[in-house]
């Protein structure tokens, strides 16, 4: 199964990642003004029995547990047309940088999909609309109906 997500044409994309469970990774072609290179990653669809609010909470807990000095800034569910999406934004630190990671999660056909995007805090205003556009372009694969 493959996902569809649209990133800027100049970004470097790879569907062959070394990170288990990651279906796609893409990053800007060069560092932003801060010197940090923004990136996005989409996890592979993982089976789940949870509904979106519970899945979003699990994603938030896992993400926060993996970050240094996390500060949950936003947690919400948005209507994105065909599927609702869980959204969260976390400020954190990594290698001396102040970063923001946004996560969007979908539960479609009992599969959980997560799109993560990370940018330096000082570059966030320049990238927040682009990251949202990337998230809005996400389309999970269609699971064929059993006959």
Describe the structure.
The protein is an alpha+beta fold. Helix content is 20%, strand content 43%. It has two helices and eight strands, in the order ββββαββββα. Strands 1, 2, 3, 4, 5, 6, 7 and 8 form an eight-stranded antiparallel β-sheet that branches. The longest helix is centred in the middle third of the chain and has 15 residues.
Mean pLDDT: 89
Strand content: 35-45%
Describe the main β-sheet briefly: 8 strands, antiparallel
Helix content: 10-25%
The end-to-end distance, rounded to whole angstroms, is: 19 Å
Shape: globular
**Total number of helices:** 2
Low-confidence stretches are none
Q: Specify Rg, calculated over alpha carbons.
A: 15 Å
In sequence order, what are the helices and strands, one letter per element? EEEEHEEEEH
Number of strands: 8
The assigned structural class equals alpha+beta
Summarize the structure.
With 147 residues, the chain is of the alpha+beta class. It has two helices and eight strands; from the N terminus they run E-E-E-E-H-E-E-E-E-H.
Topology readout:
Layout: E1 12-14, E2 22-27, E3 39-43, E4 46-47, H1 52-66, E5 68-80, E6 83-94, E7 97-108, E8 111-120, H2 124-137
Antiparallel strand pairs: 1-2, 2-3, 3-8, 4-8, 5-6, 6-7, 7-8
What labels describe this entry?
alpha+beta; eight-stranded antiparallel β-sheet; 20% helix
